[in-house]
Design a protein that fits this description.
mainly alpha, 77% helix
């Protein structure tokens, strides 16, 4: 029964990953939080397990998603190369930071963060949008600034258990990148984030000697397998849908999703 639940979560998360370029974390974390709570795990570990497992599954999800977006020519590889080192280092360090924060505070932090991002997305970028060719070299920040931005996004991604799309997409659209290319590049950026984050949560979880069955540190093995298997296939479907919808509609849908999840975490953290 547990495996079936994890497969369903994977189907939803994969579709969201392909559609929004978010790695599926905004779906996986709240759903795993609910499932792990029902499984009777310690409240001190539930949120950390949801975050660590989410990042581990995003390894598979992001590969499927970035392959689909790359076929559409939507991945800006020069930008990816500038962001990737900071993303990986920041996410590993962020896993250590998250391990020192209580589960309750993590819920509230994630909730506020997602609502803030949703608001920014509804508001829209202030800078002129580039053409659909993705010629963004004249408007994006310098390489060192992109590297630094990657570090900040990486740290936040570990604390929020996401593939970085909630920050990478707004970051790119702010500087004029069209939504489809921002989503595609964000999907690629999810890979170094997920690998470094999963390793970090495993490492710091083992140091804390987490007493939960079927886990390596803060990563639940069965949940990882079930979600990864299904999300690999459904991410491709989501990516195809992303290239059918208009950029503005896609942005609004993305913001609505973040608002719902953010309100959920605030509700659970305050009640």
């Amino acid at each position: 029964m547990e495996l079936i639940i994890f497969l369903i979560i994977g189907a939803l998360a994969g579709f969201a990953a392909g559609l929004f370029g978010v790695g599926g974390g905004t779906i996986i974390v709240p759903l795993l939080f609910i499932v792990f709570t029902q499984m009777g795990y310690s409240p001190d570990n539930i949120m950390h397990l949801a975050l660590g497992t989410s990042l581990a599954t995003i390894i598979v999800t992001s590969i499927s998603s970035l392959m689909a977006h790359n076929k559409k020519g939507a991945v800006m590889w020069p930008v990816f190369k500038n962001l990737a080192p900071g993303l990986a280092i920041g996410c590993f360090l962020g896993a250590g930071i998250a391990g020192q924060i209580s589960g309750l505070y993590l819920q509230l932090i994630v909730g506020v963060f997602l609502l803030w991002v949703a608001f920014k997305m509804f508001k829209g970028g202030k800078k002129k949008t580039t053409s659909d060719t993705g010629n963004i070299h004249t408007v994006l920040p310098s390489k060192p600034k992109q590297l630094a931005a990657g570090g900040v996004i990486g740290i936040a991604s570990a604390i929020f258990g996401i593939g970085g799309g909630s920050l990478t997409v707004p970051y790119l659209t702010r500087y004029g990148v069209v939504m489809q290319k921002a989503v595609g590049t964000s999907a690629a950026c999810g890979l170094p984030i997920a690998i470094a984050g999963a390793l970090g949560f495993m490492f710091f979880g083992m140091k804390q000697q987490v007493d939960v069955p079927n886990t390596i540190g803060f990563v639940h093995i069965y949940a990882f397998l079930g979600i990864s298997i299904m999300s690999f296939f459904t991410a491709k479907i989501g990516a195809k849908v992303a290239h059918i919808l208009s950029p503005q509609l896609l942005k609004k849908c993305f913001a609505v999703l973040l608002t719902i999840v953010g309100c959920y975490f605030l509700y659970k953290g305050l009640v």
